[in-house]
Design goal:
About 30% of the residues lie in helices and about 25% in strands. The protein is an alpha+beta fold. Strand 5, helix 6 and strand 6 form a beta-alpha-beta unit. The termini are far apart.
């Protein structure tokens, strides 16, 4: 605040979180903060407003392994995985019975092979750690730190697995996508011009708002594809267009029942001046 010439007392009782957000916005406007710094500070302030459901990896995208796999296949699955921790299931993928740490796996496998003993994955995997889907992200970050854990299985009120949340997922909410040397770099969007972007249907709405300075609603949908489906209350066909607020979405490609690619056009009108419309492009 002082850097930007805004006077305020440290113990000012009228200075709240909204004032702090305003100060961060002014920092970006006056050039004291660059856009990545502004995004990080704004994201930190939002950690107590979002839940793990907003940042988790959905159950359909979880990479897991069957506890009863033959050892050769088990070694192949672990060797080809890009993750350091893998959920382990028994009988069906929704019945997660443990978490396998790749480092522990290789250490135990080495000991078994050189000690002449049979390898037993059940003796290596750790107990699963369950997290309610409505847990606040800021509190979960502290819980990970306190428990010295990096992964939690997200469950709903009935105990059903909804997804997984990791320490990295939460950190990416602050600093953006984290990629290491083993990650396959993929472009999730292509900018056609200043107002038009072709984007993956799986692109998170929250990330899109931050990346492109959009103002898409975040309350009811996690991904761009989910936002379109939620608005239409059905799965659109390729070629359909739908306007939501000041944005027009055109479905370019589908993969099974998921929206694979979507063209997003940012219109000039303010959201309150537009109604949701639908058209089919022939």
């Amino acid at each position: 605040m002082k850097i930007m010439g805004i006077p305020t007392e440290p113990d000012d009782p009228n200075f709240g979180e909204e004032d702090l957000k305003g100060a961060i916005g002014l920092g970006l406007y006056h050039g004291v903060l660059d856009r990545p710094e502004h995004r990080m500070l704004d994201a930190v302030l939002q950690l107590d407003e979002i839940t793990v459901e907003d940042v988790m990896v959905h159950r359909s995208s979880i990479e897991s392994i069957d506890v009863n796999l033959p050892l050769k296949e088990l070694k192949d699955r672990v060797a080809n995985s890009s993750h350091s921790r893998l959920p382990v299931w028994e009988d069906n993928p929704d019945n997660i019975t443990g978490i396998l740490h790749v480092r522990d796996f290789h250490r135990a496998l080495y000991a078994a092979e050189h000690g002449g003993e049979a390898f037993n994955i059940r003796q290596v995997m750790q107990e699963p750690y369950f997290v309610p889907e409505q847990a606040v992200v800021a509190e979960q970050l502290m819980a990970f730190r306190k428990k010295r854990m990096h992964m939690g299985l997200v469950v709903d009120e009935y105990g059903d697995i909804m997804g997984i949340v990791t320490l990295e997922d939460i950190l990416e909410e602050i600093v953006g996508e984290i990629e290491d040397e083993h990650d396959v770099v993929r472009s999730s969007y292509t900018r056609e011009n200043d107002k038009t972007i072709v984007i993956s249907g799986a692109f998170p709405v929250r990330d899109a708002n931050r990346e492109f300075d959009w103002d898409l609603p975040e309350d009811d949908a996690v991904t761009i594809g989910g936002l379109i489906v939620d608005e239409l209350e059905r799965i659109p066909t390729v070629g359909e267009r739908v306007s939501i607020g000041r944005f027009t979405f055109e479905v370019l490609a589908k993969r099974r029942q998921a929206l694979a690619r979507v063209r997003v056009i940012a219109n000039e009108q303010a959201p309150e001046d537009m109604e949701t419309t639908l058209e089919v492009v022939q």
